[in-house]
């Protein structure tokens, strides 16, 4: 399953069919996300964009998108951008920290964009040559349909080669 996910992520960059298939697989692989309708809508070598709809399942008590839904769509973008650059068949990713700054209430559909700089990728690989694990901060900006900045989600991920993982799936 993990090898298929790595392949889907790479192919989804250039194919709407594979992007659709990736979203289908993700809704089954991460059952928490399915009722909320989180989707990956764009993948490039520079960024990943995810989507959450302004709909009842995502509402808080004042009919805005719930803070946890905003956090999750940001986490999803960050995780996928890491998996784009580092195959989940070779590397294990665990989020070790999340910090969120909310700027504006979400009353429309939202998108999260996460990026990973080329120099970050090089630094991660160099670090993993000399040590069992490393961490990487990934920042996701959450915006609404009017491009209003809704939140900034900062996730820190522990990255480790599967060969160095003591507890396997």
Please list the strands of the largest sheet in the order they lie side by side.
1-2-4-5-6-3
Calculate Rg over CA atoms.
16 Å
Output the CATH topology. Answer: Thiol Ester Dehydrase, Chain A
Give, in order, the helices and strands: HHEEHEEHEE
Proportion in β-strands: 25-35%
Seen as an oligomer or otherwise, the chain set is single chain
Number of strands: 6
Given as residue ranges, the uncertain stretches (5+ residues, pLDDT < 50) are: none
Largest sheet: 6 strands, antiparallel
Summarize the structure.
It is built from four helices and six strands; from the N terminus they run H-H-E-E-H-E-E-H-E-E. It has 169 residues and is an alpha+beta fold.
Structure commentary:
The protein has helices spanning 2-12, 16-29, 67-85, 118-130; strands at 39-43, 47-52, 91-102, 110-115, 133-144, 149-161. A hairpin with a 4-residue loop joins β5 (133-144) and β6 (149-161). With 169 residues, the protein is an alpha+beta fold. It contains four helices and six strands; from the N terminus they run ααββαββαββ. Strands 1-2-4-5-6-3 form a six-stranded antiparallel sheet. The protein has a single domain (2-164), classed as Hotdog Thioesterase (Thiol Ester Dehydrase, Chain A, Roll).
């Amino acid at each position: 399953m993990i090898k298929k996910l790595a392949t889907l992520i790479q192919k989804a960059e250039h194919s709407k069919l594979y992007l659709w298939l990736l979203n289908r697989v993700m809704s089954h692989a991460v059952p928490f996300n399915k009722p909320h309708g989180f989707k990956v809508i764009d993948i490039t070598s520079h960024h990943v964009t995810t989507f959450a709809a302004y709909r009842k399942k995502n509402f808080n008590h004042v009919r805005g998108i719930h803070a946890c839904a905003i956090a999750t769509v940001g986490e999803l973008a960050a995780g996928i951008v890491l998996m784009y650059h580092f195959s989940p068949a070779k590397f294990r990713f665990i989020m070790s920290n999340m910090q969120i700054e909310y700027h504006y209430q979400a009353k429309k559909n939202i998108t999260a964009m996460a990026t990973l700089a080329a120099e970050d990728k090089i630094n991660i690989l160099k670090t993993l040559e000399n040590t069992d694990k490393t961490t990487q901060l990934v920042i996701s900006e959450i915006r609404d349909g009017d491009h209003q900045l809704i939140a900034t989600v900062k996730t820190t991920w522990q990255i480790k080669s599967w060969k160095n993982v003591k507890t396997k799936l």
